[in-house]
């Protein structure tokens, strides 16, 4: 009996599959916040996204250019691609509207594209056609900004990790990160299968029939996606994100555990028990602390099969594993004209960013390579300055 138990726990350790290493408390404490870059008026990352950016319009193109500029100047090691498609919409009067997905990929140096499995960080960058002037701060300007800051924060650690393992570790040499900022998620009129997910549908379809060279480990770019981590409607206070899929509940549990640790370390700024809020409060008794991801302990038989229609659907239909981080219920500003920068809860935005960063760093086994000392930060700003 005892032997059987020991054997079982050994099996469960191996069945986690690829390595996933917890970050130390020290590393969690030092994960860099976005600082001024998330200022809604002047922030270099978030402010340029907070404008109407309906697919096919000037604003949409300008925001895409912002992504290109950011990666070219700050993350030159990432491979940038645009995925183009066109479609008519219910309001285009028969005209073709362009939909352009922005894709940035960082693979281990020297690896062949078809031999890398990737964590995909995904959000949509288009905004809704109505109401006029709609900004879509939670939908999904803030998630795009979160992903950009996460990419920037793990970039140097990826370089160090790959330099440290000189081709001696299969897992290290075959694991990359991919960012998908998708266009045309929103319906122009009423959400239907044809009027929604324009960019995601075209990309999933194209990638299904784009074949890597015959000797590749992964057949197509879709097979190369190890996990499709989709962020949507994030940035309002007190979100509650359930675990939607039994097949990826193990990944949800990893993120829920990271959240739990960040909370216990007092690092979640939106927490009613955060030091900054406690200092202003007379009654120091700890308050109840709702979690963003409260279903870490959900039982296998509690999954009802319900899910939210979003950019993951065309990928899920083709067998890609999905972790969908979207609150249920939706935040009250959803698809209202007040979903703008001023209505973001910035503490919550920062907390999500820190949590997604921790999850990504653990997924990519970056413990020991994340070093956020002041010297490194100075160096980064210097190199930015030198780029013409
Ligand atoms: Zn929307």
Automatic annotation (TrEMBL):
Annotated protein name in UniProt: Peptide hydrolase
EC numbers: 3.4.-.-
Record CDD domains: M28_QC_like
Source taxon at top rank: Eukaryota
Gene Ontology BP annotations: proteolysis
Keyword Hydrolase tagged: yes
Recorded family membership: Belongs to the peptidase M28 family.
Source taxonomy: Eukaryota, Fungi, Dikarya, Ascomycota, Pezizomycotina
Entry keyword Protease: yes
Domain Peptidase M28 per the UniProt entry, residue ranges: 117-359
Matching InterPro entries: M28_QC, Peptidase_M28, QC/QCL
Signal sequence residues: 1-19
Region (Disordered): 275-295
Pfam families assigned: Peptidase_M28
MF-aspect GO terms: glutaminyl-peptide cyclotransferase activity; peptidase activity; zinc ion binding
Keywords per UniProt: Acyltransferase, Hydrolase, Metal-binding, Protease, Signal, Transferase, Zinc
